[in-house]
Amino acid sequence: MRIAALITWVITALGGFHMLGVWIRRGGVRQQRTGTSRLPAPVVFGHFALAAIGLVVWIGYLATGRSALAWAAFGLLLPVALLGFVMPARWIPAYRARAATVPSGTDESVPAERHFPVAVVLPHGLFAVATLVLVLLTALGR
Fold this sequence. Notes:
The structure is a single chain. The protein is mostly helical. The chain has one domain. Helices cover 76% and strands 0% of the residues. The chain is built from 5 helices and no strands. The longest helix has 34 residues, at 67-100. The protein is elongated and about 50 Å long.
């Protein structure tokens, strides 16, 4: 289960890293000043940073077997999950607006997150839930 958690975490991280790259390339950081993006930069970068730190802690747990590190990784995943639930709630209206209009690649009035592919967003969320469950079960010693 420990390795399964690592695998799901890495898959989740890859999807998240892709979406972060799309958001940055499409001007998500610049759009914070204009209010165009619905995703606040502190939420986006906080989610990313805590998840990355948690993954490093999990790898430390795998290397040492110290249960305190498993619990620390789980503790880091809780705010990651909370921030993760905020983002789809703010992304869905931007995605729905995508169906109504076809955005141009340079239009600053189009939220950057509108360019997130559903084929990445949904698996990212599913793998994130699986990771949280696997990490908790491992920390509990199951």
